[in-house]
Amino acid sequence: MTKLFAILALLLAAVASSGNRPAPATSPALPAEPSVVVDFSMSSGTYRVSGDAVLLSQRFTPGTSLDLMIAAAALESGELTPAMEVPTREGPMKLPQALKESNEEFFAQVLKRAGYEPVRRLLQMARYTPGIPEAVASFAELARGEPLRVTVFEQNLFLQSFVKREVPIAAEHCAALERDLAVAGSKPAWGQSGWGEISSDGRYVSWFNGAARLKDGTHVITVAALTSKPSPAALEQFRRYLAEKR
Questions:
Q1: Structural domain boundaries, residue 240
Q2: Mean pLDDT of 35-60
Q3: Among residues of the chain, what percentage have pLDDT more than 90?
Q4: Taking the CB of the first residue and of the last residue of the chain, which one, N or C, has fewer CB atoms within 10 A?
Q5: pLDDT for 155-213, tens place per residue?
Q6: Within a domain: residue 20?
Q7: To 5 degrees, how large is the angle CA 219–CA 221–CA 224?
Q8: How far apart are alpha carbons 46 and 213 in whole angstroms?
Q9: 29 in a structural domain
Q10: Kind of pairing, strands 189-198 and 182-183?
Q11: Exposed, middle or buried, 2 (CB in 10 Å: 0-12/13-18/19+)?
């Protein structure tokens, strides 16, 4: 018995000693943030999809990526010009700066001036999404992309019609918007980035919808990424995509 008690004492001492040792440092695995890239070649008329294809069947708010449509409709109606200053809390702001910053207040003000109808007609004629409301509760909500829901392909199809000049917007307005939305990177490119909240699970969708000039011609590229907070994740992925793939 004495020997048994001695063995038990040694085991208890070993357990106590191991409990006092610092645990090895481990970094918790970060949750994956799924994303998908849809790349349409204007010259070949073909698509290339990379990333999480599950996202293609889901609908998300366009968020501030809707700024491009709001600006285009307001320019076409004459309620907005590139030189016009719109009052915001950050001071008077012009369209090029508002597009770069995705300034919600600017576009809410523009919507009040132009009205919802020109935007609704543009979205309908461009077949942006089947669920275009007849009216909106507030201009501020629409400036954030609510209550619309779109797929990644619908975003891409709208921009295809924009690049082909098939939308009911004057060519000079389209060209001016493309210049305002120029993206610095490895290839000549332009596009609108933005983000919107996904209320169902508390995450956000980061968007980039744009075009790039590659060796075989123009490509219309849409990126959607799900993130835990508002971020330019889609724009960053667009730049990586151009640098790595072409």
A1: 34-245
A2: 95
A3: 63
A4: N
A5: 999 999 999 999 999 999 999 999 999 998 788 999 999 888 775 667 899 999 999 99
A6: no
A7: 170
A8: 16
A9: no
A10: antiparallel
A11: exposed
Q: Are 183 and 190 within 8 A, CB to CB?
A: yes
Mean per-residue pLDDT over the chain, rounded: 84
What CATH number is given to the structural domain containing 83?
Answer: 3.40.710.10
Domain-embedded: residue 159: yes
CA distances from 91 to 95, 97, 154 (A): 13, 12, 34
Please name the amino acid found at residue 131.
G
Residue 207 makes CB contacts below 8 A (sequence gap 6+) with 60, 62, 63, 64, 65, 155, 192, 193, 194, 195, 196, 222, 223, 224, 234
- What is the H or E stretch that residue 12 is in? helix 2-20
- Split into its structural domains, the chain has a count of 1
What is the amino acid identity at position 145?
Answer: G
At 185, the amino acid letter reads G
Radius of gyration of the chain (CA): 25
Q: What is the DSSP string of 59-104?
A: -B--GGGGHHHHHHHHHHHTS--TT--B--TT--B-HHHHHHHT-H
In a domain, 6, yes or no: no
In 3-state terms, what secondary structure has residue 108? helix
